[in-house]
Amino acid sequence: MAIDPLLRLDGVSKRFAGDVVGLDGVDLDIASGEFLTLLGPSGCGKTTTLRVIAGFESPTAGRVLLDGRDITALRPHERPLNTVFQDYALFPNMTVAENVGFGLSLRRTPKAEQRRRAAEALELVGLADKIGARVQELSGGQRQRVALARAIVCEPRLLLLDEPLSALDAHLREQMQVELKRLQSRLGTTFVMVTHDQTEAMSISDRIVVMNKAKIEQIAEPATLYDRPETAFVARFIGAMNLLRATAEGARENSRPPFSAGGLALDVAADDGAGRLAGTERTICVRPEDLIVCTAGAAGAAPARITSVVFHGRALRLHADLADGQTIIIDAPRQAGASPFSAGDIVHVALRAGANCQALPN
Ligand SMILES: Nc1ncnc2c1ncn2[C@@H]1O[C@H](COP(=O)(O)OP(=O)(O)OP(=O)(O)O)[C@@H](O)[C@H]1O
Ligand SMILES: [Mg+2]
After folding, report:
1. How does this chain sit within the bilayer (predicted)?
2. Which CATH superfamily is domain 240-359 in?
3. Domain 7-236 top-level CATH class
4. Is the distance from CB of 38 to CB of 50 less than 8 angstroms?
5. What is the Å distance from ligand 2's center to 85 Cα?
């Protein structure tokens, strides 16, 4: 993290009428040039965070700093940033070109330059052929892309995007994710994007801020968030995850890993001394793809009864019960032909060699 962030939220809280807590003591540094994503369930405070940064909402406590300068009291148009709103907020009576060029006309940019830059921005979002269309004639996904073009055309230092791809179909969405990332590196603009789609956040972001109930749970790079979630909420929110109550079985030896859940040996990679005392209980995170179905008697394997088999394309997702009653999910690579597994089967399950598995703090 750079020492001097472009933008800093310093202890920001926002209370709405009726004592609704929108944000609760949020500290966040955003580095210049980074692609930062706010990720979390509906109502966790993502839009409120963007609105506080943009100046549409004034915090009840805390400060907003830009380049180290307190901008908490500045009005939205006095801040060097642009916002793509969750509901697009396009001008319905204007053409696509007029919508995109609007910010430039406010700045009294010469007409010819307005037209050129609007056309370029529309080209970037794949809507060059809609330049003369009226907004009412566009689909939801097309409107969303016009809103994006309108925001980038002014070349702001900071671009705030609230669910900018939510109205697009899966295929176009993936294509636009790549475009958005490419655009961001090309412009060198700092992007702060909101999404509740964890796959989108993982594929596009330099860092992800996971929010829950008006607070930040964890800020990390995508791979760190995936491999080393710090809280049970993050572990559950990012991809499928087994959270197993496990007991430490003694000192680590090659043949005797320290944790066991229903007989399944879980060799925790991170060395956090607390879990090493025999008898200690911890919650261990294991990804479904890090569990394998193996032969009975394999080292560290435990029996489990399959309760359901779900087709997941490249893998079969097995839901199963361990001997101690805990439920586990295993992603078994799919072979050609019929599924070798059925509900009711007893299989043996073990941790894949070299798998990453981690104890959450108690
Ligand atoms: N203007 C407002 N007045 C009162 N409460 C509000 C207002 N704006 C937001 N809230 C409340 O603040 C909380 C956070 O809302 P916010 O819009 O930031 O959520 P979000 O994370 O963007 O959710 P979503 O994914 O559904 O868009 C919610 O409980 C919401 O009801
Ligand atoms: Mg929102």
Report:
1. Peripheral membrane protein
2. Nucleic acid-binding proteins (2.40.50.140)
3. alpha beta
4. yes
5. 9
